[in-house]
Amino acid sequence: GSATSMAVGYVKVNWDLSGELALGIFSAMDAGSLFLMHFTDNIWACYAGYLVFKACYMLLITIATFQIAVSLSMERYALMFGFNNFVALAIQTILTVVVVDSKGLGLDISTQFLIYGSYFTVIAGIFLIRSIYTIISIKCR
Questions:
Q1: CB-count exposure of residue 6 (10 Å: 0-12, 13-18, 19+)
Q2: HSE (side-chain half, CA atoms, 13 Å) at 34
Q3: Which pTM value belongs to this model?
Q4: Cys staple from 31: which of 81, 103, 110, 121, with CB 3.0 to 4.6 Å?
Q5: Are 35 and 12 in contact (CB under 8 A)?
Q6: Which of 131, 130, 123 is closest to 29 using CA atoms?
Q7: In degrees rounded to 5, what are phi and psi of residue 92?
């Protein structure tokens, strides 16, 4: 995870053009690894899926943070990232209460992988659609 995050700084990519595409691809890879963990009974496949998920998720967070930080002035970093962390924790808490907690749905582990895989599929779809729109609008200028 950390090695891939460090590598992002050395890759020469036009992030304005392909940043959202990268977010969509890595979100899709996260969804695929979660679906793998749902549909398999092989523990080694689940471990491999977890490793892929964790590496892609860390890379996803690094790229997203970079995309946000590029457009901010130094004075707004703390406010923006503090707010982002608050919103992320709120969403994580809501998902945990609804999906995991016995007061919510209280789903088993395999079904949780299915729910979270579906969540990442929706996120990947949003990023991919947005990136296609961005690429087409830049190429048509």
A1: exposed
A2: 21
A3: 0.82
A4: 121
A5: no
A6: 123
A7: -60, -40
Model confidence pLDDT, tens digit, residues 10-55: 777 777 778 888 899 999 999 999 999 999 999 999 999 999 999 8
- Tokens in use for 31? 């969804």
User: Which residue is listed with tokens 């999906």?
Assistant: 99
Q: How many CA atoms lie within 13 A of 42 on its CB side?
A: 5
Report the alpha-carbon distance of residue 75 to residue 89 in Å, rounded.
23
Helices (H), the chain: 2-8, 15-39, 43-70, 77-95, 109-139
Q: Which two tokens stand for residue 6?
A: 């460090």
In which residue are the tokens 């950390």 written? 2
Q: Which amino acid is at 135?
A: I
Residue 37: Cβ within 10 Å count: 24
